[in-house]
Design goal:
Elements: E1 3-9, H1 17-28, E2 32-38, H2 44-53, E3 58-61, H3 66-72, E4 75-76, H4 78-83, E5 88-92, E6 95-99, H5 102-113, E7 122-126, H6 130-140, E8 146-150, H7 154-162, E9 170-174, E10 184-189, H8 193-196, E11 206-214, H9 222-229, E12 233-235, H10 238-253, H11 260-268
Parallel strand pairs: 1-2, 1-3, 4-6, 7-8, 7-10, 8-9, 10-11, 11-12
Antiparallel strand pairs: 3-5, 5-6
Bound molecules: 2'-monophosphoadenosine-5'-diphosphate (ATR).
């Protein structure tokens, strides 16, 4: 019997997840179906419960339901606990398990696809919303030298830094205007400004041979354009999208799909 999976969000029409997971399934000869499900803004739990009852095996969860998904779980992985949000649910006979694959997806894209190591580097994370929170701990897990969180609302950056488990990594919160120039090796845009094309009021923060990474995908954002003009190497979030999906697929199926061909397919579209 075909195992059923889905992605739940609102909006959901433009989600690439069905395409990605069907490609993974074909490649690994897994018999699964995967569809998009639109849930009402106040109706996540009801929709998820009905999928459990219908015998679905799991779902991916996207904006704005990652916190609802966190609350829906019976059991959560450390990744989910650290992010405070869940993007992948697995429905089992013992209950609902939840994890968050966003941070590992980002780290994998930077390390394996872009070939850039994070260890010992000076990292700047722009933003302190759900997207930033989801990737902070996995980035710290790579033991950079420094990690600065900068955000328009400085208080949110401070809160995020204060509750992180930094180990020996130097972590700090900064306002945009106070960022040092020509300092950072990896700059990650986790704000939602790419959607509105707002320019972040940051100085030229890029060190030599730095990487600028926008977690958005599908467009050349102003952040990316400015970083390129400042001499940085630039990447969008398409690799992270595919890698977080691969982590979810592995969490469900115990099989790790290859990602390069799927990234190429999405880029070609
Ligand atoms: P997400 O889940 O995408 O992270 P979010 O939790 O609403 O969404 O967070 C949005 C992030 O983008 C925040 O860091 C937000 O900054 P504030 O915390 O100061 O609101 C940032 N952001 C959104 N619009 C912005 C703008 N016009 N200028 C600067 N930062 C902005």
């Amino acid at each position: 019997m075909t195992d059923r999976y889905a992605v739940i969000g609102n909006p959901i029409a433009h989600s690439q997840s069905p395409l990605i997971h069907r490609a993974f399934a074909a490649q690994t000869a897994q018999d699964i179906s995967y569809e998009r499900i639109l849930a009402p803004l106040d109706g996540f739990a009801e929709v998820a419960k009905s999928l459990v009852e219908q015998g679905y095996q799991g779902v991916n969860v996207t904006v704005p339901f990652k916190f609802d998904a966190f609350n829906f779980c019976d059991f959560k992985t450390p990744q989910a606990m650290q992010a405070g949000a869940v993007n992948t649910l697995k429905f089992t006979d013992h209950g609902v398990y939840g994890t968050n694959t966003d941070g590992d997806g980002l780290v994998r894209d930077i390390l394996h696809n872009l070939g850039v190591s994070i260890q010992g580097k000076r990292i700047l994370l722009l933003g302190a919303g759900g997207a930033a929170e989801g990737v902070l701990q996995p980035l710290l897990g790579q033991v950079p030298a420094t990690l600065v969180v900068a955000n328009r609302t400085l208080d949110k950056a401070k809160k995020m830094v204060n509750k992180s488990h930094a180990g020996e990594v130097q972590v700090a919160a900064h306002a945009y205007a106070d960022l040092p120039e020509h300092y950072f090796d990896i700059v990650i845009n986790a704000t939602s400004t790419g959607l509105s094309e707002t320019v972040l009021p940051i100085p030229d923060v890029y060190a030599e041979h730095s990487l600028a990474y926008d977690m958005m995908y599908g467009r050349d954002t102003l952040f990316m354009q400015h970083a390129r003009a400042a001499g940085a190497r630039v990447a969008d979030g398409l690799g992270m999208l595919v890698e977080q999906a691969a982590e979810a697929f592995f969490y469900w199926r115990g099989v790790r799909p290859a990602t390069q061909a799927v990234m190429d397919m999405l880029r070609a579209r």
